[in-house]
Amino acid sequence: MNVFRLTGDIAHLLAIILLLMKIWKTRSCAGVSGKSQMMFALVFTTRYLDLITNFISLYNTTMKMIFIASSYGTLYLMFLKFRATYDSNHDTFRMEFLVVPVAGLSFLVNHDFSPLEILWTFSIYLESVAILPQLFMISKTGEAETITSHYLFALGSYRALYILNWVYRFYFEGFFDLIAVVAGCVQTVLYCDFFYLYITKVWKGKKLTLPA
Amino acid sequence: EICSMPKDEL
């Protein structure tokens, strides 16, 4: 464990808490992409299958359970409890355009052709593009609530911090996982446009609006 | 070298 990975995991946990807070306090999931949240739940489900079989540490097991529980909790809030506030008209990104190629790629490019490894690879590839429906939705509505922009900033920062963690582990532990690094870089690059808007607007107290 | 260590990362 190193400081980059720890802060990355905390940023990830913060993002999930911010989203749950936003939905619970505003009693609305307006501006949040249900499709991205469905893909995040799929990411955690396919990545943490070893939760039962492979104990690594109490921290690892606890965080995995929190991530799985909160992702399904978010789906419950969005599609059941506050379903009336779900903005399906603007959440129109075709998930199959992401899930199918990612599934195909995880069969072609992986470290080991075993079910658990292919599912892990699938979850890594899927996570790198899972935010696209959310970013697409913001581009369609042209704006995002401030707390939603904080959620996205924390979520984007988590994988950026993981890149620093992989640099650290490469030099100090000789650990290098090409699949995780490439997918992590793609994932972080997808946030660049949002990071620019967030830093130039939200940090100046303005609302996050996209140039028309 | 590429090594897929046990998945100790989240």
TrEMBL record, chain A:
Ranges annotated as spanning the membrane: 65-83, 119-139, 151-172, 178-199
The keyword Membrane is assigned to this record: yes
Any Pfam family the entry gives: ER_lumen_recept
Membrane topology qualifier: Multi-pass membrane protein
Compartment annotation: Endoplasmic reticulum membrane
InterPro entries hit by this protein: ER_ret_rcpt (IPR000133)
GO MF annotations in UniProt: ER retention sequence binding
Record keywords: Endoplasmic reticulum, ER-Golgi transport, Membrane, Protein transport, Receptor, Transmembrane, Transmembrane helix, Transport
Record's keyword annotation contains Thylakoid: no
A Gene Ontology biological process term: vesicle-mediated transport
GO CC list: endoplasmic reticulum membrane
PANTHER family: ER LUMEN PROTEIN RETAINING RECEPTOR (PTHR10585)
Family: Belongs to the ERD2 family.
Official protein name in the record: ER lumen protein-retaining receptor
Species assigned in the record: Capitella teleta (Polychaete worm)
